[in-house]
Design brief:
Elements: H1 3-18, H2 27-32, E1 59-61, E2 66-71, E3 87-90, H3 97-101, E4 111-112, H4 113-129, E5 135-138, E6 148-155, E7 157-164, H5 171-176, H6 188-198, E8 204-212, E9 218-227, E10 231-238, E11 249-259, E12 264-273, H7 275-278, E13 292-302, E14 308-318, E15 330-343, E16 352-367, E17 376-396, E18 399-410, H8 420-426, E19 434-446, E20 453-463, E21 473-475, E22 489-491, E23 493-502, E24 506-508, E25 511-525, E26 536-550, E27 554-563, E28 576-584
Parallel strand pairs: 2-3, 2-6, 7-9
Antiparallel strand pairs: 1-4, 5-6, 8-9, 10-11, 10-28, 11-12, 12-13, 13-14, 14-15, 15-16, 16-17, 17-18, 18-19, 19-20, 20-23, 21-22, 23-25, 24-25, 25-26, 26-27, 27-28
Length: 585
């Protein structure tokens, strides 16, 4: 692998780990979620055996009268079964009559060794297209005086699964996550699913190597592993906070990647405004606490049948320095559960991985301060909502694709803080019974061999309801439209798009740097007009940025964006710069 390829890989891993995930988790949690460590490069394809090659034009059979395909472990066939202009297949259900008829044009003609290799190659490709890359198609020594050729198909089956190189993850753990049964055919979709599971943990990288098995026509699957001690502590800084709670934020957290030795992960992060360290002005009636502090956690645990469960949440205190806040503190909390149900890959090769996610969110809040608002309410609102999401992803040599569709629904009226009065006090017209849908897509792809690459991701939200601030779509800031302050505009409905053109990565030792330019846009609007809100806003910006990754220890990203439109008519179009720094073990 070239140094440029390594640099691009390292920076791509940094992109994944620094940018918050935008799946079926609310934006309040997304802003302060624990940061995963930089991941290793992921293998994109499982190896395959070479295809048959023979360019000889020498004639093997002067008058081809039949072809008999037979499995290597099938009973010895008689060539009579393929006589009388017949092309047959014994014990090979993948070789359908339609496929076999494709060789009819070869009958009653001379068969060269080159054409014989072409027939064998077509059978190999047939098996590979059906997700069985490990197959050997050969012509055994035989008497072909009757014009009939026998072609043998050897389907290699799984022997042993052998972990190698692992130091911090047990053999049993790695073997459990590679869904292969001894003696069964090795299917590419099973290998791809196993690698997706094994490489989901950022503390290891696993490749598959095929080795001859002890038994005839078997192949051992070697899990070549590079891992490290699965614990990380980190600290960082960014200026992605809302203005009234302090743009500057500091953070600290930890992540452990093999809880109880079962491949479970747990993470925690504290995020606070910079006055956590500098102190607060002496304002009568104002609590002596930072303007903003949040504690977030997540736990991800695999189940024996290879699905997984997730638990995550956040508790945040917001104490703005506003003249009319009377020392009030906004309190927000969330606890969420997700069940990730893995589905079989969509294709035989296992390139398209899919899952369904089922979940529940409980949220409690008495303010809208985290989303650029200015209100602390007299009562709490409680959200009880259920989530159903479908996730589809593909990673190959052409790039990475990720699609997601999520439905959020609240039946409402679960408790005394989940009623019309509480919701309407928080936001005019809001009701505890609502639904909204989100559709998102992301595509990252290289531009040939130039080293340049492009990235695009978009999100669309639609609802027929008036939503509370935590469920609205917010625009502005690093996760949506750069060049604007975070949550410059919010709406019940809307969309946003982020695009990047990335230059070739530049590496020096363990450090890699990648400049990029971007264009972002978005539009949000409310179901009904809300007092004191921007009810319809279109945002667009252009800018440039840079990502720097120093091994697994330092991640840095900086952007500088120029708004093309003001949030409100005659409003400011001043450029906004943002930086994100994480230093970890």
């Amino acid at each position: 692998m070239t140094r440029a390829r390594v640099a691009a890989t390292v920076v791509s891993a940094a992109i994944v780990c620094i940018v918050p995930a935008r799946d079926a988790a609310a934006q309040s949690y997304r802003d302060v979620a624990p940061i995963a460590p930089p991941a290793e490069e992921r293998p994109r394809a499982s190896p395959s055996r070479p295809e048959p090659r023979d360019d000889s034009q020498d004639v093997a059979i002067r008058d081809l009268r039949g072809i008999a395909f037979v499995r290597a472990d099938a009973a010895e066939p008689t060539t009579q079964s393929a006589a009388d202009n017949a092309i047959t297949a014994t014990g090979a259900p993948l070789l359908t009559r339609e496929f076999l008829d494709g060789f009819s044009a070869d009958l009653h003609k001379p068969l060269t060794f080159a054409r014989l290799a072409g027939i064998r190659r077509a059978v190999v490709q047939r098996y590979r297209a059906s997700g069985q890359p490990l197959v050997d198609v050969y012509v055994p020594e035989q008497d072909v005086s009757d014009g009939v050729v026998k072609i043998v198909i050897a389907e290699f089956r799984a022997g042993r699964v052998i972990p190698q190189g692992n130091r911090y993850f047990s053999d049993a753990l790695l073997m459990r996550e590679m869904p292969l049964a001894s003696g069964e055919p090795i299917r590419e979709s099973d290998i791809a699913s196993g690698l997706a599971l094994l490489n989901a943990n950022p503390y290891r990288r696993v490749d598959v190597i095929y080795a001859p098995g002890a038994a005839h026509d078997t192949t051992d699957v070697v899990l070549q592993t590079e891992d490290r001690f699965p614990f990380r502590i980190y600290g960082g800084y960014n200026n992605d906070g809302v203005r009234d709670l302090g743009r500057d934020r500091i953070l600290a957290g930890f992540d452990y990647g093999n809880l109880f030795g079962i491949d479970a992960r747990i993470g925690y992060q504290m995020t606070a405004s910079n006055d956590l360290l500098s102190g607060n002005p002496d304002i009568e009636g104002r609590p002596d606490r930072p303007r903003y502090i949040a504690h977030a956690f997540n736990v991800v645990a695999p189940l024996p049948w290879l699905d997984r469960v997730e638990l995550f949440g956040v508790f945040a205190e917001s104490t703005p320095r506003l003249p009319d806040s009377y020392g009030q503190t906004g309190l927000s909390s969330q606890i969420s559960f997700r069940y990730d149900w893995r589905l079989p890959p969509l294709d035989h090769a296992g390139a398209w991985q899919q899952q369904v996610q089922l979940g529940y969110d409980f949220k409690r809040s008495n303010n809208d301060l985290e989303f650029g608002g200015f209100q602390v309410f007299n009562a709490n609102t409680h959200i009880h909502q259920f989530v159903v999401a479908y996730d589809l992803s593909k990673s190959d040599a052409s790039g990475d694709t990720h699609l997601n569709a999520s439905l959020f629904a609240s039946p409402g009226y679960f408790d005394s803080n989940s009623n019309d009065e509480a919701y309407d006090a928080a936001r005019l017209g809001a009701k505890p019974r609502y639904q909204y849908m989100q559709l998102s897509a992301q595509r990252d792809m290289p531009l040939g061999t130039s080293g340049f690459s492009v990235s695009a991701r978009g999100l669309f939200q639609w609802t027929g309801s008036t939503l509370l601030p935590s469920e609205e779509l917010g625009l502005g800031g690093d996760a949506t439209v750069r060049g604007y302050e975070p949550y410059a505009a919010q709406g019940d409905r809307g969309w946003n798009l982020q695009t990047e053109l990335r230059a070739p990565a530049i590496s020096a030792g363990i450090a890699a740097m990648q400049p990029f330019v971007f264009f972002d846009a978005g539009h949000v609007w409310n179901r009904i007009a809300e007092f004191g809100e921007v009810n319809d806003a279109s945002l667009a910006s252009v800018g440039a940025g840079i990502r720097v990754q120093v091994g697994r220890f330092v991640s840095f990203r900086g952007t500088y964006g120029f708004p093309l439109k003001a949030v409100v008519p005659n409003g400011s179009k001043a450029p906004v710069g943002e930086i994100f720094l994480v230093i970890g073990s």
